[in-house]
Amino acid sequence: MMAEEPRVTRQSIIVDRYARSGLSIAVAESLTAGLVTAAIADVPGASKVLAGGIVAYQTPLKHRLLGVSKALLEERGAVDGQVAEEMALGVRERLAQGPLVSTVGISTTGVAGPDWQDDQPPGTVFIGLASQSGVTHFAHHFGGGRQAIREATVAAALEHLWEHVDLHLR
Length: 170
Description:
With 170 residues, this protein is of the alpha/beta class. It is built from six helices and five strands, in the order αβαβαααβββα. Strand 4 and strand 5 (134-141) form a beta hairpin. The protein is globular, with a radius of gyration of 16 Å.
């Protein structure tokens, strides 16, 4: 029986490039509830780069597990770009397995629906990215139902990880 040829996916390229760069990935998830971490972990050899993930689905856990400012959460709610940034910073700090400079934190927060949350409509998503070069967030609005929004968020998070390592390797 012949061995199955490994499938090249966005996440397999991410795992390969992060491994070659000596970088690790730490994931903080809210609306995706572990889907980003699972997408990366599906790749053979992911343990070379995937430090782990924290699912902080409920708002108070974003403060308790990730260190997001309680005042920020009370003022703006969980669906916010600065919250995404603090989630990415928090997971980066908490899951670093060596020098902090080698860990990239990525986070997802938003509204999958069907109801609005924190005055934001379904499909509103913020993805945070924290690395040695700084912290930023990306705002998205995805259409469709809950599952479509969550899947689009995973794809966007992987895209941001790809863009980050692509810039890092230049």
